[in-house]
Model the fold of this input.
Amino acid sequence: MSYIVSTRHVSKEYKGKEVVSDVSMNIERGQIYGLLGPNGAGKTTLMKMLLNLVKPTSGEIEMFGEKLMPGSVELFKRIGSIIEYPIFYEKMTAVENLELHCEYMGFYNKHAIQEALERVNLTSVDGKAVGEFSLGMKQRLGMARAIMTKPELLILDEPINGLDPVGIKEFRNLLRILSKEYRMTLLVSSHLLGEIEQVADTIGILQGGKFIREMSMQDMRSEQTEYIEIVTPHCKEAAFVLENQLGVSNFKIIGDSMIRIYESRWTQQELTKTLVLNDVGIESLNHKHTSLEDYFMQQIGGGEKHA
Ligand SMILES: Nc1ncnc2c1ncn2[C@@H]1O[C@H](COP(=O)(O)OP(=O)(O)OP(=O)(O)O)[C@@H](O)[C@H]1O
Done:
């Protein structure tokens, strides 16, 4: 398998503290790869290492099959990125900023500037200095700058920050277009699975600097569990009846009033009947499945604990 990005045991320490720890990740050409993790997980640091902005303490990085070295410069002509907040010359207009970027990248194509601005829906800002833009407009301009040279790989750090709901929807469509029509490979970080689950092909989960898991969204969806959820004010009594009358062993008690049963031996009717016959009042009893967000929270250790 040829990967566009491949890291081998990459770690980064700051003042003796490891903030990225032994990360081995692989991004296939043409994929939208979601790098997920809560604040401070190490997503930005990992992306900065891919862009040679931060030197790994140990480990190796390959980009486009080539080992990343301090002097690798040509590689970055094939990569577009937005890391943290995009920075611009505030007194210049959007077009002037993009023209300057073209010059810097050795790429000049007036048509590409207009096309990029149209792609991100930032067309009626002629004559306005970037310093007067809102955060969302700056994010759009950052995106225009990143895609203007049609890079093969696009690295976006929390790109949804600052966008309104319409902007988020447009942004997801843009990612799909860049992937499907422009055949770009995309690495997108987020702290919320919900923001990228609809577009990502693969997810890598980072927590406390450690790479917990890398899996396709398809596998992630198939790992969602089904369960029966009982809401009852008599949780302890219900658990006792389930265990002793029905032999149910695979269940969790959540808080004071909820039980989730992960085995399908008994129907909803049978469970209801047994609980009621044993004087256990029930508020509801329903068949459910975990959402991807629940799954993600479980992976990063923020899910419910076993009773
Ligand atoms: N230059 C630095 N010096 C010291 N510590 C740093 C430096 N840069 C990052 N860190 C620390 O490394 C850890 C990971 O930070 P990083 O910004 O990579 O996480 P993140 O997952 O991108 O988080 P967020 O979503 O909040 O941006 C944090 O504890 C941060 O304080």
Remarks:
- Residues 303-307 have pLDDT under 50 and may be disordered.
